[in-house]
From TrEMBL:
Protein name: DNA-directed RNA polymerase sigma-70 factor
GO cellular component, one term: DNA-directed RNA polymerase complex
This protein's UniProt keywords: DNA-directed RNA polymerase, TPR repeat, Transcription
Annotated region (Disordered), positions in chain: 1-20
InterPro entries in the record: DUF6596, RNA_pol_sigma70_r2, RNA_pol_sigma_r2, RNA_pol_sigma_r3/r4-like, TPR-like_helical_dom_sf, TPR_rpt
TPR repeats: 366-399
Residue ranges occupied by any RNA polymerase sigma-70 region domain in the UniProt entry: 26-86
UniProt domain DUF6596: residue ranges: 189-288
Segments forming a coiled coil: none
GO biological process terms, semicolon-separated: DNA-templated transcription initiation
GO MF annotations in UniProt: DNA-binding transcription factor activity
Bias type Polar residues, positions: 1-12
């Protein structure tokens, strides 16, 4: 096999191209490899070897014209080497029909999108512990590390890694089939799939608008649209597609030219993607017609009200309040409570918003501190606002968000200092 069989072109940043492929194609390539072997861990090892080889060969040979095809071929041959080794080993039995698994030879890497959906559904198989369904999808198909998943679920990383390892072993040993189950089985798995797609987008949201992570936003949107098309009578599938579509429509407006965060209320609505908004609103209408209310639909409806400012130049705060209150009744979360507090403050004043925040028991929840700081500043409690900003900054890991909070905090601290020192303000 020649690594240059797909053709190659010289580039100045082969490592960057390999990183791009890892970000945008990993899940698709892993899905086709694992579907042919039933061994997720083995497919992961083969694909990791292919990416490692790309980092060595691409700077020398140039990046192939079809990077995905190159990676798939190298990983496929790595798997074949493993099968041959197993066949000649006295300690490792060769699985029946391994040599007949020629599906890899006929794979077009540009046409394997639905294989990811099959792999998502495999991860939600009833023989696998339901508690690990969503983390397994986030790890295997969507490319998140055990550390990232652990942070999202507030579980120790070693615990997550151990659970993922057991689940992959279960898939291999139980020979769980890689296929889309029939419609009688699909509803039992679809909720876990929706949660995983939403989880990927939510975990990635702080940086999804930067160039580095655009690929995952697009992948989440594609998968959500695919599931909605496969499950046209599932209101929550349409709700999720609408939610991600409406959020993605605003990505480009979230940062200025220097990479600084721009809050929703200050964004230039002309930079929002109206095509995505219209497509998402169509999903929302389809969900509403099914007359089954769910969390994703409510979150999408909230985003739709915000996006309506693109056309009306105003925000319907009272409708937002009703939607947030319903969402908190149906699926209460810390994030939902903070958003409700912000909306209440717009209608009834900063004090009313702070009262809602006071009902929240989440001392290390960064959005709560950032919102508290904003509302305290609006109320004129500047010293307390600075303290709240300091706490929010200490809990912020996303660089653009941190820079935004530091700017707000420093501007507030400067104005407080000027008020206390009239001589300084005159200088």
């Amino acid at each position: 096999m020649s690594d240059r069989s797909a053709g190659s072109t010289p580039v100045t940043d082969p490592q960057g191209r390999a990183s791009d492929a890892a970000r945008t194609s990993y899940g698709r390539l892993l899905a086709v490899l694992a579907s042919s072997t039933g061994d997720i861990a083995g497919a992961e090892d083969a694909l990791a070897d292919a990416f490692e080889r790309a980092l060595t060969r691409w700077p020398v040979d140039g990046v192939p014209r079809n990077p995905d095809g190159w990676l798939l071929t190298v990983a496929r041959n790595r798997l074949r080497d493993g099968w041959k080794s197993a066949a000649t080993s006295t300690s490792v039995p060769l699985e029946p029909q391994s040599h007949e698994r020629g599906l890899l030879d006929d794979v077009d890497p540009d046409a394997i999108g639905d294989r990811r959906l099959e792999l998502l559904l495999v991860c939600a198989h009833p023989d696998i512990d339901p508690a690990v369904h969503t983390p397994l999808m986030l790890d295997v198909v969507l490319g998140f590390t055990a550390k990232q998943i652990a942070a999202a679920f507030d579980v120790p990383a070693p615990t997550v890694a151990a659970r993922l390892g057991r689940a992959k072993k279960r898939i291999r040993e139980s020979r769980i089939p890689f296929e889309i189950p029939d419609r009688t089985q699909l509803p039992a798995r679809i909720d876990a799939v929706l949660n995983a797609i939403y989880g990927a987008y939510a975990i990635d949201w702080p940086t999804a608008g930067t160039q580095v992570r655009d690929g995952l936003a697009e992948e989440s949107l594609y998968l959500a649209d695919t599931v909605a098309a496969m499950m046209p009578d599932d209101a929550e599938a349409h709700g999720l597609a609408a939610l991600i579509g409406l959020s993605t429509a605003r990505l480009r407006a979230r940062f200025d030219g220097d990479g600084r965060l721009i809050p929703l209320a200050e964004q230039d609505t002309a930079r929002w993607n109206t095509t995505l908004i219209e497509r998402a609103d169509d999903h929302l209408r389809r969900a509403h017609a099914l007359r089954t209310l769910g969390r994703f639909q409510l979150e999408a409806a909230i985003q739709s009200v915000h996006c309506a400012r693109r056309f009306t130049s105003t925000t319907d705060w009272h409708t937002l309040r009703a939607l947030h209150e319903t969402l908190q009744t149906l699926a209460p979360t810390n994030g939902g409570a903070v958003s409700l507090a912000a909306v209440v403050a717009e209608i009834d004043g900063a004090g009313a918003g702070l009262a809602v925040l006071d009902t929240l028991n989440a001392p290390r929840f960064q959005p709560a501190w950032a919102t508290r700081a904003h509302l305290l500043a609006k109320q004129g409690a500047f010293d307390e606002a600075v303290v709240a900003y300091d706490k929010a900054i200490s809990l912020t890991t996303d660089i653009p968000s941190r820079r935004y909070l530091e700017d707000k905090r420093n501007a507030l601290a400067t104005s407080v200092g000027d008020e206390r020192d009239p001589e300084h303000s005159r200088r």
